[in-house]
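Students often ask why we bother predicting the structure of a whole assembly rather than each chain alone. The short answer is interfaces. A chain on its own may look different once its partners are present, and contacts between molecules only exist in the joint model. In this exercise we take four input lines together and write out one structure for the complete complex. Read the inputs first and try to guess which parts will touch.
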Amino acid sequence: MSVLNRKERDRQLRRSDILKAAEHLFALKGYHKTTIRDIAKESQYATGTVYLHFKNKDDLYFGLLEEKLEHLLSIIKEKTGQVKDAKEKLEIYIREDLIFFEKNQDFFQISLLEGSELYAERRIFKSLFRLQMLEYTISMLKEAQEQGVINSGFDPEKLSDVLGSIIKTVTLKWLQEKERKAESLVSLSDTILRLFLYGAANK
Amino acid sequence: MSVLNRKERDRQLRRSDILKAAEHLFALKGYHKTTIRDIAKESQYATGTVYLHFKNKDDLYFGLLEEKLEHLLSIIKEKTGQVKDAKEKLEIYIREDLIFFEKNQDFFQISLLEGSELYAERRIFKSLFRLQMLEYTISMLKEAQEQGVINSGFDPEKLSDVLGSIIKTVTLKWLQEKERKAESLVSLSDTILRLFLYGAANK
DNA sequence: TTTAATTGTGAACACTTGTTCACAAATTAG
DNA sequence: CTAATTTGTGAACAAGTGTTCACAATTAAA
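Now the answer. The structure tokens for the assembled complex follow.
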């Protein structure tokens, strides 16, 4: 049994070596420009070994992406679970997004850039995670509308897209100018909330 | 001379045949999945002929993109040229963007999706057009701040990104649900302006 | 009409890259 | 320690694709 454990553990280690290399390279060069050979080399295995642990390149990339985003959703759900106030919920939602992106900035630098292009046709991503996240965000916004925090004139789905794109845009901008790393990404969450709720107008 | 003209005209016709096919295919399948063979076939020429008119694939794609966006910028500049009021300017800016995207929806369906991924490293796009558009938008927003229409607390560059991303998001959403084509894209410009200026909050 | 120049053609080239597979190495079982 | 099983290896395969080029077809010049 201890043998089986070691075997399994070694297997997991190898898998995780490869995942780590893949994450690093995808982050560095994006999906299209990262080859299986690259990943094998960086993780110091042979090309074929990668296929002992992952079905194919898509599996590797989308598995990674989905894993990360599922994690984000679970964090958000957990943190907002007990909160009743819609505005506070929104605040937490934005903040946790930013904290997560900041923590995983290497990976998301490219993922956010590649944006929707890749996802447009990948079954997994389209069906599984995305819908869940969207569903959660929409329900949160609807709640805010019911509580009178958000104007009911707006379509919640559209609002969800807009909020998501603002977060994405601000994150990308932050990532690109991280030389002057004066401010942390999460420190921008107030700005985003304010912009989303009250707009850019001068009072 | 009339001979020379016919020659040149035929040449332009061929060039435009190819451009048209390219536009159609890029719109349909995106940059990566459109091959020179595809373009040649659709425009009913041989593969090599494409290279008689365009240096390479990049040249074709980015030429097309840049041409379109330069056109958009020129329209915006023209329409806002005589307008003094910052809010009205902003209104026109948004409206003309939407009109343009609606008019060129085939092309932008994919271009917007592919988003920044491709551009990240292409010299031309990075330097030439993008900066001009950004510059114009920023100056417009600064003017709005000076006129007291927009809160000076926000960084104009960030605002420009956010506004751009809202327009992009709403456009993409509209493109994707164009079955229920009840509303035109341009009819959404009020919503965008309102959202951008006053936010989603309930008054 | 014949010759020269231009233009179109698509097969061939060069390269990339995801994936497989026969073989080697290592590990486990007897 | 030997045989059997599992696992790792990287060369080879297959498919795709941007680009070129020798040749053919067409057009212009003489």
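Check your guess against this: The interface with chain A takes residues 30, 32, 113-117, 120, 145, 148-152, 154, 157-159, 161-166, 168-170, 172-173, 191, 194-203 of chain B (CB under 8 Å).
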